[in-house]
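Researcher: Here's a chain I'd like modeled. Treat it as a single chain, no partners, no ligands.
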Amino acid sequence: MIKYEKKSDDLNLPIKLIRFEEKHEQSILKHWHNSLEIVLPIRGGDYVWIDGQYLSLNTAPVIINSRSIHAFEIGRIKPYVGLALQINYQFLKEIYSKIDYVTFKQPDEEIGTLIKKQILLIDQYYNLQKPNKELLICSALYHLIYLLDEYLSVEKKDKLEPKSEKNKQRITSIVNYIDNNYQEDLTIEHLSEVFQLSKGYISKLFKDNLDITIKTYISQVRAKQVKQALLTSDLPLIDLSMMYGFPNVKSMNKVFKELYQCTPHQYRQKYR
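Model: Modeled as a single isolated chain. Structure tokens:
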């Protein structure tokens, strides 16, 4: 079960600061929002999935850009504790006119440390019993936005209008359908029938929003399920490959190693 603690919203600030703790493996549906989000892992954690890419959750801040589809794989061994800072999109547009034309890359260790400091300051300021603590929170927030702009902003290749909300909803529905039906014989023809969309349109949705093919995404989801099974089951690898939709062990090993930098056998030996 995931426990969320949202810091007080009665300060009329353009941010939400959420502290969360997860004690057991739990699936979190892929989702998106307009707010810019920065996640600060404190303890535990595994991976975050952002727009088709897996990033390791360690102790470094993770940037989730506005309208990015994302989800978390929570700690396989230890409980996961973290902070999530969401910055209101309209507020960003008002103070940072470039927000629609840039994206923020993931920080290196040096910049990550500076960003982490500001998020922890915001958390600390929230807990103060001072009537003017909003000023302290805003000072750290503006410093944080400065760091994002100065060190992490990258001009978008596509300067057209942001992807439509309708398309975001469609791709999110499709990936969540795949997540829940990974054991089926999933093909683009099947998805086209389920969602009443053309095969070409679905392929374009994946390319435009996730920059991967449907086949790659389905393989990623199946590899993720294999990873969980390796921690809880003693089934042979050949049985796992068949159970989770891979044609053979070789195919499963290839996808698994691309995602997790080790084979299923190595992963089981290390974490069981």
